[in-house]
Design goal:
It contains 6 helices and 3 strands. The protein is mainly alpha-helical and 112 residues long. The protein has a 3-stranded antiparallel beta sheet. Helix 1 crosses helix 4 and helix 1 crosses helix 6. It is globular.
């Protein structure tokens, strides 16, 4: 697997933890917030990204899911144990995101 799919799988994992996601939608949780990063991935990296999360037990494909335009499954269920096991990482990711937003607000205020 290329680095692209592996690092994108980590990005998705962090997103799942930060937002306490139970039902995962490719469009809502990947295609919209990470549009440019997702589009920049090779087809094999896109497939590898979801395979990594599925094989690690993070995601389970929704039996009613359809393949979307990118040829990945549209909806997944997040393994509830992920949120139990990675509470510290979830807290760290939420803090990192809050700090980033705060720093961004400060940068914008300094430019004004």
């Amino acid at each position: 697997m290329g680095d692209g799919g592996d690092s994108f799988a980590q990005k998705i994992a962090k997103h799942i933890l930060a937002h306490n996601i139970i039902d995962f939608s490719h469009n809502k949780h990947v295609a919209e917030p990470y549009y440019y990063a997702w589009k920049a991935l090779k087809k094999t990296d896109k497939e590898a990204c979801y395979s990594t999360l599925e094989n690690a037990g993070w995601l389970m494909r929704d039996p009613n899911a359809k393949l979307n335009v990118d040829k990945v499954w549209s909806t997944w269920h997040v393994n509830p144990r992920v949120h139990e096991k990675f509470t510290a990482q979830a807290d760290q990711e939420r803090k990192r995101r809050r700090d980033f937003k705060e720093a961004e607000k400060l940068r914008k205020a300094e430019k004004s």
